[in-house]
Write a structure and sequence with these properties.
Number of helices: 3
Distance between the termini: 39 Å
Shape: globular
Length: 224
């Protein structure tokens, strides 16, 4: 009887966390991931972490010839949580470092950004239940015009002939109704760290930027 109650409670908590995460999926800066856990799922979250959209279209924009701007495509590795991603030429680092728990890039002279942020959850946090609930919400939001696409996205690799799950998650493209349009991959790794990867651009720039933003999101891979 106790185990049944625990299962029900666990699923309920997963649903609540999923609702919070999915509701904020369009804006990494909408909540502070640090210290997030099931018990705090319904508590208001801060805004102190990644703020990739602080730069407005009319802000002063650095010239593409700036020394900070990469002249060629470059791959970065976060050695702390063991994942890698690739940033195109013409982008620069706005904040953070590859090994930090949050980092922001921007394409100079544009409103395009890429950001990641992660935090550790409890070891018994029901990640699979959260992914399923969050994906369901993201797909329902397509009907309401909040998202234009949503799908399950896991990072699975062959290890000694067997499939090994390195990260489980969901990916969505929002409609940009309340600001920049975003492609977002949210996932959990094998040690229950929660990740939010986001590539964005203002709506009037998004369609043209989408192939580049999607390529960045697709480049994210977890390592052994």
């Amino acid at each position: 009887m106790k185990s049944r109650k625990f299962l029900v409670t666990t699923c309920l908590i997963a649903g609540l966390v999923a609702a919070v995460l999915a509701g904020n999926a369009g804006n990494v800066g909408a909540f502070d991931l640090k210290g997030l856990n099931p018990a705090d799922a319904l508590k208001p979250q801060g805004t102190e972490a990644v703020k990739p959209n602080d730069a407005k279209p009319n802000d002063a924009k650095p010239d593409a010839s700036s020394p900070k701007t990469s002249k060629e495509e470059k791959s970065y590795t976060n050695n702390t949580r063991r994942f890698t991603f690739t940033i195109p030429a013409g982008w620069e680092i706005s904040s953070g470092t590859p090994d930090s728990d949050n980092m922001v890039f921007r394409k100079t002279g544009t409103t395009q950004h890429f950001a990641f942020q992660y935090t550790q959850l409890a070891s018994d946090f029901p990640a699979e239940a959260s992914v399923k609930a969050s994906l369901k919400t993201a797909m329902e939001d397509i009907k309401h015009g909040k998202n234009i696409a949503a799908k399950r996205r896991d990072d699975v690799k062959k290890v000694k002939g067997k499939d090994v799950l390195y990260a489980r998650g969901w990916e969505l493209i929002d409609a940009g109704k309340n600001g920049p349009q975003r492609i977002i991959w949210q996932c959990y790794d094998r040690e229950n760290f929660y990740f939010n990867f986001m590539a964005s651009a203002e709506s009037n720039e998004f369609d043209e930027a989408k192939p580049t933003l999607q390529k960045i999101i697709d480049s994210i891979k977890f390592l052994e």
